[in-house]
Amino acid sequence: MGMKGRLGGLGIKIANIAAIIIVILTVVSGSMIYHTAQEAAERAISNVSIDTAETIVSHINPETYKQFLQNQKKNKVYWELRQQLNDFRVKTGALYVYTLGVTDTKEIEILIIGESAKTASTIGETTNATTYKSIEPVLKGETASTEIVNDPKYGEFLSAFAPIEDKTGKVIGILGVDINAEKVGSITDKVVLESLPTFLVTTIIFMVIAVIILYVFIMNALKPLNIVKYTAEHVAEGDLRGANKYIAGLPVKRRDEIGQLSQSFHHMVYQLKEIIQKVTFTSEHIAASSEQLYASAEQSTHMNQQIEQAIEEVATGSSKQLNASEEGFQAIEEMSLEVQQIAKSASFVSDISMGALKEAQQGKEAINKVLSQMSSINHSVEGTAKVVERLGEHSKEIVQILDVITNIADQTNLLSLNAAVEAARAGEHGKGFAVVSNEVRKLADQSRQSIDKIAGLIRGIQEDTQEAIMAMETGEEEVRSGLTVVEEADRSFQRILENIEYVVKQIQDVSASSKEVSARSKQVTGLIEEISKVAKSATVNSEHVVFITKDQFVSMNEISSSSESLAHIAQELQKAIHRFKL
Questions:
Q1: Distance (Å, rounded) from C-alpha 340 to C-alpha 353?
Q2: What 8-state DSSP symbol labels residue 430?
Q3: How many domains does the chain have?
């Protein structure tokens, strides 16, 4: 009951759509029936009109009509034909009965109209109500009719035409009959109304039966979809055991799309069950393996840490040994260079000492010469000091003379100022004197400036003279001291000669010993260099091992993290799989 309720909505929707389509088809069919009835009524009236026209033509004397055509006037023949046509109009109930003619320009003329004698009509009156195309078959000896015409003046009517032929079968005229067509619509409505109840009842019964049959068919056809839907709900809830109970009801042997869907869904549930079973086994295996891998990774990480620490200690020791050997090598090498330099220096000093011995001997001789020259310098300095003292006395006399000249220049400047004042009082007469006094004042100023410069120079000379006197006195004392020092130097040179002779002998011994030490230090340098190379190689290798160990430590950490993540994922996968009931 629940399954039917689930699919009832879809079946009802399809049945409603089918019912709507049937109603639409019914409406279309009814409309077509109405138009068909209307056309049938029109054809019936047309046939009746043509039969009427042919009947009337059969009662018209062709020879009489020929007489009228030959003399188209309102004569006896005209009135006889008109009366005859009017009698047929009245008897048949037609609107109009008339004859037509065609001009050379294919215009339609009304020749005789069957009317009462009281009604006037014109012979040969053209008309537009009938076209040449409508009567063209009649000119060939056939009958014709028009569709129902709705004329504002005459209302709805239908025209039928029949040929008037002579004995030879030649068409000599056209007979027209206009039939009232206003009853065609009422006749059609009457026929449709009479048949409508039967049509509606039959249609409703057919529609109800069709909808019921269609609904039953749809419900039976869609029943597997309900099973699929219910099964899918159980699969979505993880209840594969419940889903298997409903899969057995799927029509897998059907050849249509529902059968193919049932087969595919049945196969899908079976494959899903196998996949979940495999995933369950795999997740359990992954969980166990990941835990084991995590434990191994942790152990390897701990061992790598110990190895890394040991290698780092080895690397540190190798590095220290390398640094010590390099420093020892550098020290021995520097010592070797220094020993070699000492040897060279000792040899060089030995040579220099021999030269110094010779120079000391020559210096002894030079000191003796300096003693005699210092005595001469002492006499010269004493004479120069006396000359400088006389120069100081003369500069004092020059200063006194400059003072006199300065007083004269001041007085001259004062006189020139007084003269300028007097010249200003004299006005025009004193202009020449004013110019002269001005020039005299300028010369006095220049003299005063020159005297000041000379006085400055004299003062500088006096100061320099005083300093020279003091320097002479100091120089004289220094010369006397120099004589004492030179005498002492002479005695020192004598002692230097004796010491240099002793040093030369000792340096020659040191030079021989330095050469021997230099040869031994070269051998020690070679050995330390070999030790340094070995220590350097050991340091590089230990650093490389440390680098590899660190990389391995990082890799083991990544493996440990990955195994932990894998274990977590396996646990989550197991939780997800436990939702399914196999």
A1: 19
A2: G
A3: 2
307 vs 309: CA distance, rounded Å = 5
Q: What angle (nearest 5°) sits at the alpha carbon of residue 432, between those of residues 427 and 434?
A: 70
* CA atoms 511, 515, 517, 521: torsion sign: positive
Extract long-range pairs of 122-130: CB within 8 Å, 24+ residues apart.
Answer: 123/72, 123/73, 123/74, 123/78, 124/72, 129/159, 130/100, 130/159, 130/176
Are 547 and 278 in contact by the 8 Å Cβ rule? The answer is no
Are 470 and 414 in contact by the 8 Å Cβ rule? The answer is: no
- CA proximity to 222, closest of 262, 270, 265, 269: 262
* Inside any domain, residue 299: no
The answer to the question of residue 266 being in a domain is: no
Helix (H) or strand (E) holding 512: helix 431-577
**Residue 180 sits in which domain range?**
2-218
| Secondary structure class of 149 (helix, strand, coil) | strand
CA end-to-end distance (rounded Å), the chain = 27
Q: How far apart are CA 143 and CA 177, in angstroms?
A: 12
Kindly state whether residues 311 and 203 are assigned to the same domain: no
Looking at the domain assignment, is residue 229 inside a domain?
Answer: no
What does the block give as tokens for 288?
């166990």
- Predicted local distance difference test score (pLDDT) of residue 478: 77
Distance CA 472, CA 484 (A): 18
CA-closest candidate to residue 52, choices 202, 183, 161 = 161
Task: State whether 68 and 186 are in the same domain.
Answer: yes
> Token digits for 144?
């014709």
Last residue of a domain, one of 218, 235, 256: 218
Same domain, 428 and 564: yes
Q: 152 and 10, same structural domain? A: yes
Instruction: Tell me: pLDDT of 384 over 50.
Output: yes
- Helix axis angle, 182-236 relative to 240-247, nearest 10°? 140
pLDDT single digits (tens) 133-144: 989 999 999 999
**What is the DSSP track for 165-204?**
E-TT--EEEEEEEEEE-HHHHHHHHHHHHHHHHHHHHHHH
* Boundary (domain end) residue, out of 196, 218, 240: 218
CB atoms within 10 A of CB 190: 13
Contact call for residues 491 and 367 (beta carbons, < 8 A) = no
321 with 444, same domain?
yes
Q: Which two tokens stand for residue 378?
A: 């002492």
403-462 per-position pLDDT tens digit: 877 887 778 778 777 877 877 777 776 677 677 778 777 877 887 788 788 878 877 877
3-state secondary structure 248-285: CCCCCCCCCHHHHHHHHHHHHHHHHHHHHHHHHHHHHH
Tokens of 221: 């056809």
